[in-house]
Amino acid sequence: MSILLTGGAGFIGSHTAVELISAGYDIVIVDNFSNSSKEVLNRLKVITGKKIHFYNGSILDKVFLNNVFYENDIEAVIHFAAYKAVGESVEQPLKYYSNNLTGTLVLLEVMRNHHVNHIVFSSSATVYGMDNISPLTENLKTSATNPYGYTKVMIEQILTDVAFANKEMSVTNLRYFNPIGAHESGLIGEAPNGTPNNLVPYISQVAIGKLKELSIFGNDYDTPDGTGVRDYIHVVDLAKGHVAALKNNLKNTGSAVFNLGTGHGYSVLELVKTFEEVNHVSVPFVIKDRRAGDIATCYADSSKAKEVLDWTAEKTLQDMMRDSWRWQSKNPNGYQS
Ligand code: UDP
């Protein structure tokens, strides 16, 4: 029996692949490398000592996906494959709705045809929208501020409805907070296309000299130092959260939702300072206006995952900053040599 990872060559998928293999699972990766690299598979082999079983193709292609299920004895799916750039989703909403929603619908149809009833979904804290107050609990009302966020809200709903209709189905929606860091080998990490949108990849590229300075979007928020506060979580902790969620999913039916965060918020300035201190590098910055759609503070109530999944994030902010920098400095151009 195998666990299928759609989008398994991506940032979170690849780290989850490592943790699943080390927990003894057989895995199959499907990826079309639209925002990842085949080199990831070589790196995974070095880390795990195992050849990675993978298929190069799109989950939008029903014939292709059907063949993957036909050729493998799939027990459960962890569904990472999706577009994820917020700004691009505002400019090209149809691209996002079409890829993220249709991809999920095709996957669910193929799963049904092959009687595969277990799915763990990559959702996001973005589903808490602008109005909820942190710490965020799973029972709060969901909403979104951009098409990317709406795809997460909608897919959570689709999965919940499917589990309601099919009593053999088991669905787990995982709401990620801000994943950063990298595997401690420095062999896999986040490799954004073009200029990064997210804070830590941006800081890393400033530190290495690829970008001139960091723009800090607002220092007049109602937070201790005025800059935005987020719940940053080490990607290896997040990956271990998937293993815990999968175990829980496999012994249940119905639908469940879990926050995967640390439960602590750090400000942009705290991140910059910690990155500089831990790595002995300098990160010049300028203060700019607030970024549209940003909120002051966002962090998880992470108690449900602790109680039900017996999982908590263990790594510190220092670990996250050190591992992000190791990845960046060993791979200045990501997976491109
Ligand atoms: N941020 C920033 N400069 C950047 C990118 C991000 O000041 O170049 C801030 C952003 O305003 C937010 C935090 O860093 O307060 C995290 O942003 P990111 O885009 O990484 O994640 P988000 O929480 O927005 O999904």
Strand order of the largest sheet: 3-2-1-4-5-6-11
- Overall pLDDT level: 97
Assess the beta-strand content as a share of residues.
15-25%
The SS-based structural class is: alpha/beta
Count of helical segments?
11
Query: How many structural domains can be distinguished in the coordinates?
Result: 2
- End-to-end separation in angstroms reads 35 Å
Q: Name the helix and strand elements from N-terminus to C-terminus, one letter apiece.
A: EHEHEHEHHEHEEHEEEHEEHEEHH
CATH topology of the largest domain: Rossmann fold
Helix content: 40-55%
Unique ligands: uridine-5'-diphosphate
Q: How much is the radius of gyration in Å? A: 19 Å
Secondary-structure topology with pairs:
Elements: E1 2-6, H1 11-22, E2 26-31, H2 39-48, E3 53-56, H3 62-71, E4 74-79, H4 86-91, H5 93-113, E5 118-124, H6 147-165, E6 170-176, E7 178-180, H7 199-207, E8 214-217, E9 229-230, E10 232-234, H8 235-250, E11 254-260, E12 266-267, H9 268-279, E13 285-288, E14 297-298, H10 303-309, H11 317-330
Parallel strand pairs: 1-2, 1-4, 2-3, 4-5, 5-6, 6-11, 7-10, 8-13, 9-14
Antiparallel strand pairs: 9-12
The structure holds uridine-5'-diphosphate.
Uridine-5'-diphosphate is lined by residues 178, 197-199, 202, 214-217, 228, 230, 268, 291, 294.
